[in-house]
Design goal:
Rossmann fold, alpha/beta, 42% helix, three-stranded antiparallel beta sheet, L-2-Hydroxyisocaproate Dehydrogenase, Chain A, domain 2, 14 strands, 310 residues
């Protein structure tokens, strides 16, 4: 791929640009921000690490959207970060305005691109980008399920004192307190989690996963997570650029799948060169399906609030 653009040169955006460059997923990585000097300085810093990390990828920092033209993938990270005591919904209107403006510029300069949304509240921001862009739903994808799944895998590995690589699971639903870790699909090298941990302990790990973002916010006091979110976004870009057709949990537009209509919500999808190649509808246990549908309803409610219909 010739060009990937990252919109927003804060911690998430800059770290995403760094990982993209190190993995050499495009000939040119463009880091955009509205604050003059910020993207240019961070891009220069990233490029100067190339001789050590072993990459020749071009990294361009800019405040001019013209420099993002003809991007194959655009990753939108721009937006306000949460502070202690703030929910993702507190960011709703402020970040919606930012995503609207960013998306409008994307369709102007990169009308054939695939958009990956990282800005919060994630699922609602996907909806905003979808409506503004007019793109096919397959070209608007939200980064959330990979991050939430990664957190759940980590917490399980720490509890059991096993390698995180041996933990297999999925977290679906909206990127918030109603997300749905699939206990029925969770195992350690094929051994069901329910055989290794009590129901109470599993419930505590589920709750910690749901609060995973705010736990980091509370530690940092100012700012939010960026290492793991950037890794998740780049994993998505890698599957698209290399047409890997990986099955990953992402926020996708649902039109009847899982009994959910007209909302973005985290589900397993196949990611390839066209974006979402397939939404995979797996058979869930009754309680898991109900929880997923309830999570989608919460996303719909946030959309109604944003549009003044709540």
């Amino acid at each position: 791929m010739k060009k990937i653009t990252v919109i927003g040169a804060g911690n998430v955006g800059a770290t995403t640009a760094q990982r993209l460059a190190e993995k050499q997923l495009a000939e040119n990585i463009v880091l955009f921000d509205i604050i003059d000097g910020l993207p240019q300085g961070k891009a220069l810093d990233i490029r100067q690490s190339g001789s050590v990390e072993g990459f020749d990828t071009s990294v361009t920092g800019t405040i001019d959207y013209k420099d993002t033209a003809s991007s194959g993938i655009v990753i939108i990270t721009a937006g306000l970060a949460r502070k202690p005591g703030m929910s993702r919904d507190d960011l709703l209107k402020a970040n919606a305005a930012i995503v609207k403006e960013s998306t409008a510029k994307v369709i102007e300069y990169s009308p054939q691109s695939i958009i990956i949304i990282v800005s919060n509240p994630l699922d609602v921001m996907c909806y905003v980008a979808f409506k503004i862009s007019g793109f096919e739903s397959s070209r608007i994808i939200g980064m959330a399920g990979i991050l939430d799944t990664s957190r759940f895998r980590f917490f399980i590995s720490q509890e059991l004192k096993v390698s995180v690589m041996d933990v297999s699971t999925l977290v679906l639903g909206g990127h918030g307190d109603s997300m749905v870790p699939l206990i029925s699909q969770t195992s350690i090298s094929g051994i069901p989690l329910t055989q290794l941990l009590s129901k109470e302990k599993i419930s505590s790990l589920v709750e910690r996963t749901r609060k995973g973002g705010i736990e980091i916010v509370n530690y940092l006091k100012s700012g939010s997570a960026y290492y793991a979110p950037s890794s998740a976004a780049v994993e998505m870009a890698d599957s698209i650029v290399k047409n890997r057709n990986r099955v990953l949990p992402c926020s996708a537009w649902l039109d009847g799948e899982y009994g959910i209509h007209n909302v973005f919500c985290g589900v397993p999808v196949k990611l390839g060169r066209n974006g979402i190649e397939q939404v995979i509808e797996m058979k869930l246990q009754a309680d898991e399906l109900a929880s997923l549908q309830n999570s989608a309803k919460e996303v719909s409610e946030s959309i109604r609030i944003l549009e003044g219909r709540g």
